[in-house]
Amino acid sequence: MRLRVSLLNALVAILVASTVSFGAEAKASMVKWRTYTDALEFAKTSTKLVFVDLYADWCVPCRVMDKNVYSDPTVASLLNNRFISAKLDVDSKDTITCDGQRKTVDRCYHDVWELNAIPAFVLIAPKGLTILTVTDSMSPQEMRMLLYKFLEKEKEWIER
Q1: Any alpha helices (H) in 28-113, and if so which ranges?
Q2: How many contiguous H segments (helices) and E segments (strands) does the chain have?
Q3: Contacts for 2 with CB less than 8 Å, ≥ 6 apart
């Protein structure tokens, strides 16, 4: 009987531990990310700006942003409700459309968006044209301020 209780207690402890760690991992990013191509396609029938987060798996500041910034409830709410949010791996060999041109992600990153560091963000109008780019690691507060500034110009930029 005692062995059964100990085994039951051990199973309950494992279940609780796995639930807690799963909850923490799920909380890492509350943003509902789309693929870049899906975001551009969805934008054609939307009146929302596309927010693209450019990252790489090897980029430590990018992982910090995922953990600290995109898990911020206000940042996540803004990106989920007021923007079409997409993630794009700068190391991807995929061909995408950037400003109406079919290029590899690398060529869009360097030639079209003129970027040279990550984390970076690209804001794109619903018609697919780049509005602006930002290269910087940010705190949740800084990202909230940036998103609010984008929304101040939203009506003007939607028409591009």
Answers
A1: 36-43, 60-64, 73-82, 105-107
A2: 7, 7
A3: none
The single-letter DSSP state of residue 59 is -
31-158 homologous superfamily: Glutaredoxin (3.40.30.10)
Distances (CA, A) of 76 to 10, 25, 51, 79, 144: 36, 15, 12, 5, 9
Q: Which residues pair with 21 in a beta bridge?
A: none
Total-model pTM:
0.81
3-state helix, strand, coil in the chain (%, to 5): 50, 20, 30
Tens digits of residue pLDDT in 77-123 = 999 999 999 999 999 999 999 999 999 999 999 999 999 999 999 99
Are 63 and 56 within 8 A, CB to CB?
Answer: no
> Exposure pattern of 96-115 as b/e (b: 16+ CB <10 Å)?
bebeeeebebeebbeebbeb
Q: What is the pLDDT of residues 52-75, one digit of tens each?
A: 999 999 999 999 999 999 999 999
So where are the chain's domains? 1-27, 31-158
